[in-house]
Design a protein that fits this description.
This protein is α+β, with helices and mostly antiparallel strands. The protein has three helices and three strands. It has a three-stranded antiparallel beta sheet with strand order 1-3-2. Helix 1 crosses helix 2.
């Protein structure tokens, strides 16, 4: 008589299914400023490069609370030069 495979107990604490993000139609808000990470991804450089550029005053940024934001216009100006 062949032996049957052992049964696997059900997983517990399985993460709940993530609901789909609501679709955004014509009410999308335009991006005015990026975080340092978002700016780095947009420019295809590392976040430390963005922070160095900010420190050297090569890239304009603003401080909002504890966050450092890079205005979209500052990135466009940098890339135009």
């Amino acid at each position: 008589m062949p032996k049957s495979l052992p049964t696997v107990p059900p997983r517990r604490n399985r993460p709940a299914a993530v609901p789909a993000a609501p679709s955004i139609t014509s009410t999308a808000v335009p991006v005015l400023a990026y975080s340092t990470l978002e700016a780095a991804r947009a420019m295809r450089v590392s976040e430390s490069t963005i922070k160095r550029m900010i420190q050297r005053d090569e890239l304009r940024s603003i401080k909002v609370g504890r966050r450092r934001l890079v205005p979209k216009q500052a990135i466009e100006e940098l890339l135009a030069n």
